[in-house]
Fold each of these.
Amino acid sequence: MWINPVAGGNVLMQGDTVPVNPNNGRSTNLLFRAHHYDPDFPGFANRDLNPMGTIERTRPMNIVVNEFLAVSDTCCTDQAGENEDFIELMNLGNNRAVLSALFFTDDHEEPTKHRLGIRNQGMGANGFIGPMRPVLWADNDLDQGMNHLGFKLSSDGEFIGIYQATSYWDNYPRLHVLDSLSFDEQDDDLSYGQFPDGSNMWMQMLPSPGAPNFNAAEFSLLEPSDNTQIVIDENNVDTGFITFSWEDSWNFTDNEIVYHLDVSSNAIGDHDMDTTGTSVLVSYQEIIELMEENNVTTAYIDWTVYALDNAGTLEAENAPFSLIVNGENALASFEEELIPTQFALHQNYPNPFNPVTTLRYDLPENSMVTISIYDMLGREVNTIVNEVQDAGYKSVIWDAVNMYGQSLSAGIYLYQIKTEGFVQTKKMILLK
């Protein structure tokens, strides 16, 4: 008996290997043909044997679970409008990935439990590229589409595995483990995900299927409501305030959240402020002074708030809001009275406060002004004004920090103004 290779082929003996280099993941068939010239076995001569195996793909992909939700009560609706568990994927590899080669399971002893049937859907390389972020619904309802898995996740904790079929032999897949994880008991409507995305740093978070993971909760702007109109006149210019307020955000770590208020106006300029509170007060007097400086009587204002921690930035979900301020009456009535007749230091507002308050004072003439903060032992903790200022109605915001930028503890503090020939001190209360 002897073996004659097919034209262009090789002679193979038992135990030999066949080098195969599939082009860009395409299937390659291995076909064996036997030639037998022994007269005792004439029936085998030139007979083609069935293909023994197919190499489908040899390059492992780098797809991972980026976020999952194991119990959905009130959130996360699929295309059928039902609240369902989900698994969000991320491709960390350098090549576009095809999802049809993937198996998903919640049982490590059954790695081929569910094969994804999305043959034409791919994932961009190097993280989330493009608008599509693959989300698979773990609802054990295959009739609702090919992005639904044949199992549900357990809130008591279990296993998630992603496997890739890198080859087939005798119609059985040879599997490569792409990602696997085990999780403990989960809370209702709170997902578990990587933050930042693809970082392998896992934490509990608000679900965001198909969107970037974020550590903080969404929040909304409150007041002034969108498209509010405010009229400043001679009756309220001395006592009125605009209160910018918003909901409190939160995160799942101990990171402090700082809110950045951003106010923009073509009429009176752009202004911003950072605070750890959920409101900022701006006096009507400040608005009128800005209008007078810019020679306008009406200001159209847009405002928004950002929540910042050391891991990211989140804008209020209903931002921006618009605001119209009409100061025509106040400007007409007090155009000559914008210069006060005497020095004065007014009570801070709000008082008590946490953590921001506004100190107002009057300057009848250009003056060198110093405003300092003291504790009840008379120790100076900060100087917030120390400069020559023009005459007018003035104000300064203090955010309850000392001269080193450190937050102060709750208590009673003194604030004092000094000018040439005028000194006045008042008390204020800081709450925590």
Note: The radius of gyration is 35 Å.
Amino acid sequence: MNTITLAPAVLIVLPAAFLPSCGAPPPAIKAESSVPILKAIGKNQGQIEMVLANGTHEGWSFQGYGAVLPLYSQEVRDDGGWKPGMLGWCGTGLGEHVLEPGSSISFFVTPAAQETRIIVTLTASDGSQRVVRSPSISAH
């Protein structure tokens, strides 16, 4: 009889908050708006959880790294008003995805140290584009 000895193993369990979109999906929403909305819904260890919700009657496409991580940019506020902030993305792995009517996605962003707004550009089925900005977010 052969005996197999296995080395000790360490199992690391991470809470769902550390894994993008591994928790419960954001709730579906009713079609009430003419454009999707983008807002912060929580903070976790320096990151902000955002939700992009499509309350319209049409699908909106976006560029992203998978269907749950849209390409986004930031604006930061200083004494002179809102200014472009960091983008921090490259094009490798970028693809087009659709946010269907009544659906939403959540994703995490690392905000700038100042007051920040997150920006996502969406494209309607007719090809028109809409820039969607979140309300102001404090990184603190």
Note: The chain has a mean pLDDT of 79.
